[in-house]
Amino acid sequence: MSDAKHSSRSFLYAFITIFSLAALAYLPKVLELGFYRDDWYLLYTGNVLGAQHFTDIFMSDRPFRAVLMQLAFQWFGNNILLYNLVDYALRALAGVGAYWIVRQLWPKQNLAALLMGSLYVVFPAFADQPNALDYQAHHIAMTAMVFSIGLTISAMKDSRLGFKVLFHLLSAALAVLCYATMEYFIGMEGLRFAIIFYRCQPTGLKNLLKHAWNTILSGLPILAAASGFLVWRIFFFQNVRNATQIDSMFSNYLSSPALRLANTFASLVTDTINVTLLAWGVPFNKLASNLRLREWMIGFMLSLAAVAILSYFSTQAIRMEKNKRENDSSTHWAQDAILIGLFGVVVSLIPIIFGERRALLPSRFTWPGSLSAVLMLVGVFQRFVTRRHQRMILACVLAFLAVMTHYANALAFAEDWKTAREMWWQLSWRAPQIQPGTVLVGKINGMEIPEDYVLWGPANLIYAPTPTEGALPISAEVLNLTSFQMIITGRGDDKEVRSIPLSRDFSKTLVLSRPSEQSCLHTLDSRFPLSSVYADERLVALLPYSRIDQIDPNAQPQTPPAAIFGEEPQHTWCYYYQKADLASQKQDWVEVTRLGNEVLKLGYRPDDWVEWMPFVRGFAYLGDYEKVEELIPVVKTSTQLRVQACELFTQELEIVGADLQEGQAYLVDAFCNR
Fold this sequence. Notes:
Blueprint: H1 3-26, H2 39-49, H3 54-58, H4 63-76, H5 80-105, H6 110-121, H7 136-157, H8 161-181, H9 189-200, H10 208-218, H11 220-236, H12 246-255, H13 257-276, H14 282-288, H15 293-320, H16 324-329, H17 332-354, H18 370-384, H19 388-430, E1 433-434, E2 439-444, H20 453-463, E3 475-476, H21 481-489, E4 492-497, E5 500-505, E6 509-514, E7 522-523, H22 537-542, E8 551-552, H23 562-565, H24 573-585, H25 589-602, H26 613-621, H27 625-635, H28 639-652, H29 661-673
Parallel strand pairs: 2-3, 2-6
Antiparallel strand pairs: 1-8, 4-5, 6-7
Helix pairs in contact: 1-5, 1-6, 1-15, 1-19, 2-20, 5-6, 5-7, 6-15, 6-18, 6-19, 7-8, 7-9, 8-11, 9-10, 9-17, 12-13, 13-17, 14-19, 15-19, 17-18, 19-24, 24-25, 25-26, 26-27, 26-29, 28-29
Transmembrane segments: 12-31, 80-102, 109-127, 139-156, 163-182, 216-237, 258-284, 296-313, 333-354, 366-385, 392-413
Protein name: Glycosyltransferase RgtA/B/C/D-like domain-containing protein
Keywords: Membrane, Transmembrane, Transmembrane helix
């Protein structure tokens, strides 16, 4: 077989392997993924304010992201599947780029190149792949950087001046695209310059001073691009976001340089170990160890399929390698790969640690060092594992762990989105309209709320989907000690989130709770302070401060947009509970009992017994004591609920209307005396 055909077939095998492994890792749950975290202020901006306002959103730290977001929103809108598929394609292309880098550096090492691309594309410590909308910019930056490094190698290898200049220009352009999109990816230049140094002296990494000048000359286009970006970023760009502000980073070190440097060194060592070694085990242990049997079996089968694909094409790569004996015993390139990879990992972590971030496991901050870490790993395989098939087996074990990790991770994201969708649909059933000025606070079991926009983004998309002057109609806050104190004292504050103004009056707080996986969404009511046995203690303490009158029960119902939240879920128990709770807010006990009779006829039952209480009250107030007697034994199974209900109904006995006195007395007797 000619060298051209050999190279073409090798590339085809690598392409199939890398795209197949990426598909097994990232696509099995793709139809169940949705929107998360930072997606919500992006969705609010694109849908309510208009795509042109992405410029305001990102002007504070990454202005070029505005261009990418405007294009993405114009092309894909709210179709999260398209974002996921594009991110999958970008990650797989980056894997092909990693394969290309190794093939250019060591053309005879076909197996090493294949393992490089395969392990890099499933690197398990980057667990934000399912967060497709917000992380699309990360994928663009990473793919641009990988191919930028590959083009630098091509420029150094090509003897034709025109192509050399072209490759250098393309490489610099892709590098600038990367920096402008994700500035902390600039640390990946450590890998590029280690490779340039190696190419200037490919027989070994020795005589540093002798070859440093050649390295600088060969890297001048990239040095110019990187230097230009840094000059603009430091001296001209007005960065107002503290997390990416270079001045504040320097001031932190100047305040206590010795201590800061010592901590930085310790963090650098720890994070290097994380990225190079622990990345393949710790995320697996965190994410895959708690899978249910059915999901574990599915993940196991996907991982076995990945092993089968990698085994087959690795075997083909071994068969195609020339000079098998020589390549098997050759380790000088492997030693260099280890040193290049280690240097690349360390440098990639410097901007991250300098910016007060850490490459924890799993974390997006491990990703810039992943390319170097996998190169180092492939070098270790070659240097310390004597036979090709043994290297292949080790790579298959890592691929198995990685695919299993990604499946478990996608499952967690899918569950989070399922919970979020159900929560917002349930809130729309419970709250026809939320009053302007409301501050949402909550704890939703099964759904992360790391930032306030995880609540105010969806709420405004549902209840205030048109632009307004000034602050957001509905704001929110994360539940923490500070917000807890502000709610109790009824204070307020003003803030901006990505140029979006919020004005919060905590005397208008509405507390949301989903106490357990078995519970429906609960809108806490200070006038009826009855809490679930599963309720978070902080939410129980906030019950007297949750203003149910922030819900307008008589307004025209608002429906969550299906393009974002999906189609309305089936009307099961939680639908009837929310509608009954809404009717009880309106004191419409006829509607409560109608809903109660219907839900009993349908056979729906709650797993959180506090959810029976609207129906218990409705049946009692209308004199249907037979139904009350049917429900009370279930509710009273919980001593906590029985005691709460006794105290509450006793207090209400003196304030309810005359038409409800008999039913109220019956409830007091049922919960206090029997």
